[in-house]
């Protein structure tokens, strides 16, 4: 079902200044700058906001042409800050002032990778938890000691400020921001068009090693188990049953699963069930107990407990809020 093109687009400000990373700029543009309304994704208005309209130089001979000044941040529903090529580059004073004013207005702000350094320069991370690329955590601690640097996560939020780890974790954060604003199906549609994973939890480890060919073989076996579990979410899965499918002992399976995915088998399974339940709540009018059954929770009570832990809401309230926000009606009945 195509999204309504008459809906008011969410306004996204890409904050541009010399030194921003081209990769992060591309991620932001790919998530919010491509029109996918014909595939059911809501409309976005992405603007490149800078101190003036002069081209912003980036590494590799690239440049970014702003189409709005920093004053446009007053209209933005979300401000996204790319990472930096030189993570200690001082941001221009007008940029820092614009970020402070946006924060004072209550506008959500998200920083990808080394963009956390820009937020820290603005003082927005003082006394807050934040994450950046695993190789930069020591620099963030050293240069901004008032920031509580979390050593190992993909993304996190503290209040209305979001930060992410490096490179691919920026994609995860951007998709998560779509998910919490427009629903799991919209985020999954964008992920499919980008040929990337539709859902990785922010608490997964950001640095995962594959040191030997044996580890790669184990990763293949585990990938097959994950595919099976996703295709059969309604079935009762345990670590022992999944381990048997991978041809491993439960202890070995749990150890290898965490080494290759950054989370435990049960935490991963619950997160996938929550994501699947979100889609059913968005796209169907199935009763809550039926959604719980189809996604493997077994009971409405169990699903409600996990929704509270993952989304800080109940399944019923999630469905109501999603439909009020999007004005959508169920597709399948």
TrEMBL record:
Signal peptide: none annotated. It comes from the Bacteria. Pfam families: DJ-1_PfpI, HTH_18. Keywords: Transcription, Transcription regulation. CDD domains: GATase1_AraC_1. The keyword Protein transport does not apply. Residues 223-321 form the HTH araC/xylS-type domain. InterPro entries: Class_I_gatase-like, DJ-1/PfpI, Homeodomain-like_sf, HTH_AraC, INH-QAR. PANTHER family: ARAC-FAMILY TRANSCRIPTIONAL REGULATOR (PTHR43130), HTH-TYPE TRANSCRIPTIONAL REGULATOR RV1931C (PTHR43130:SF3). This is Helix-turn-helix domain-containing protein.
């Amino acid at each position: 079902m195509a999204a309504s093109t008459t809906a008011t687009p969410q306004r996204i400000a890409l904050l541009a200044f010399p030194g921003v990373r081209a990769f992060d700029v591309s991620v932001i543009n790919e998530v919010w700058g491509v029109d996918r309304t014909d595939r059911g994704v809501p409309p976005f208005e992405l603007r490149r906001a800078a101190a003036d309209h002069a081209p912003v130089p980036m590494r590799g001979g690239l440049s970014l042409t702003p189409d709005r000044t920093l004053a446009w941040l007053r209209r933005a529903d979300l401000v996204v800050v790319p990472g930096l090529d030189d993570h200690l580059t001082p941001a221009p004073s007008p940029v820092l002032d614009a970020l402070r004013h946006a924060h004072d207005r209550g506008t959500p702000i998200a920083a990808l990778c080394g963009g956390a350094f820009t937020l820290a320069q603005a003082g927005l991370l003082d006394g807050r938890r934040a994450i950046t690329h695993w190789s930069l955590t020591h620099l963030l601690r050293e240069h901004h000691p008032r920031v509580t640097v979390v050593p190992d996560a993909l993304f996190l939020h503290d209040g209305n400020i979001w930060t992410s780890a490096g490179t691919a974790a920026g994609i995860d954060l951007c998709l998560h921001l779509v998910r919490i604003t427009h629903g799991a199906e919209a985020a999954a549609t964008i992920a499919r068009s980008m040929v990337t994973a539709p859902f990785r939890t922010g608490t997964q480890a950001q640095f995962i090693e594959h040191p030997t060919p044996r580890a790669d073989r184990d990763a293949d076996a585990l990938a097959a188990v994950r595919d099976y579990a996703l295709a059969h979410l309604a079935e009762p899965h345990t670590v022992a049953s999944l381990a048997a499918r991978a041809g491993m002992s439960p202890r070995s399976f749990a150890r290898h699963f965490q080494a290759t995915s950054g989370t435990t088998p049960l935490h991963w399974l619950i997160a996938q069930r929550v994501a699947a339940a979100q889609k059913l709540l968005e796209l169907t009018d199935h009763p809550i107990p039926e959604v719980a059954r189809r996604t493997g929770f077994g009971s409405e009570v169990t699903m409600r407990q996990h929704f509270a832990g993952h989304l800080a809401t109940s399944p019923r309230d999630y469905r109501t809020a999603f439909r009020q926000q999007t004005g959508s009606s169920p597709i399948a009945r």
